[in-house]
Amino acid sequence: xxxxxxxxxxxxxxxxxxxRILVIYTGGTIGMKDDPDTGALVPLDFCHLVDNVxxxxxxxxxxxxxxxxxxxxxxxxNPSHWREIAQVVAENCGAYxxxxxxxxxxxxxxxxxxxxxxxxxxxxxxILTGSQLPIGEIRExxxxxxITALQIAAAKDPCTGRPMVQEVAISFGRFLWRGNRATKASxxxxxxxxxxxxxxxxxxxxxxxxxxxxxxxxxxxxxxxGEAAPFSPLYAMDDAVSVVTLYPGITPAVLRAQLEVxxxxxxxxxxxxxxxxxxxxxxxxxxxxxxxxxxxxxxxxQCPAGGxxxxxxxxxxxxxxxxxxxxxxxxxxxxxAKMMHLxxxxxxxxxxxxxxxxxxxxxxxxxxxxx
Length: 371
Ligand code: ASP
Prior knowledge:
By secondary structure, the protein is α/β, with parallel strands linked by helices.
């Protein structure tokens, strides 16, 4: 699959001033249908999807779409697909007011995190959505999710006339979440996503109510102050990274098999609670060997909410002494995508360690209270 397989198809414009939105259809349940032979859901093309939502035309927007060929279940997503999506956005950023990415829910939070680092200072909305039930079914959540995502992508700040949302976000059910703060929290609930460490960017009931003080502005892209930087996409992602999840009973052989991969440049270590891990000598020795080889190990908690307070317990402090750095309150999805991004940009482990603890796209809260 390559971007040459993606063709932009335009729909007749209602009016020249109508919002211009590009829909990027990657697949996922929203556009799936039962395979008559197996009974399992398989992705169909974009025409199937829009045929089921004729009222989309009533929005009066100038809509165009790009489709991945073939559309995929998001379990098959990988960094080359992220690049493809980012390229479509970057190459079309002058021609559209906003972008809606239709995507499976399973890996949506990873893609949203990756896009947030690949498209710094875009200054326009990139709204990911999908659904738990296919749009062609009688009872479904895809129609509402799609229409709401289009409306959010088209929304303008009434004071400035600039896009209301200037970042990568996930619109799903009743909430709009920052993409690199979101996680898939339910495989059945129509509110599939949650962001445990950051408030919703908008709440959707009868109205779409934006939470203005939580929205990222392109002149404060990292979450701090600063001048507006020019948009310049950063596509390269390095997959020489990994995620290691701790569990009671993890053996030296299993840990070593995961850490002693020669090509690895870094790993996300999913620890317990406030960032705690075993203090048994074999465990700390394996960790020390990894960090001592100049590789980056970043501590994120397995808890959905809260973050790493590495020095709160002796079990967390031992990791700090072994060279593990805190990922604060980052989600695992964001930490992984950020590490791929930093190594993709050719950063050394030392530089990457510093930047892992610096907000680049609003992905972490770094209030100095934790280390
Ligand atoms: N397996 C599907 C996917 O991620 C699930 C979904 O879309 O909800 O593509």
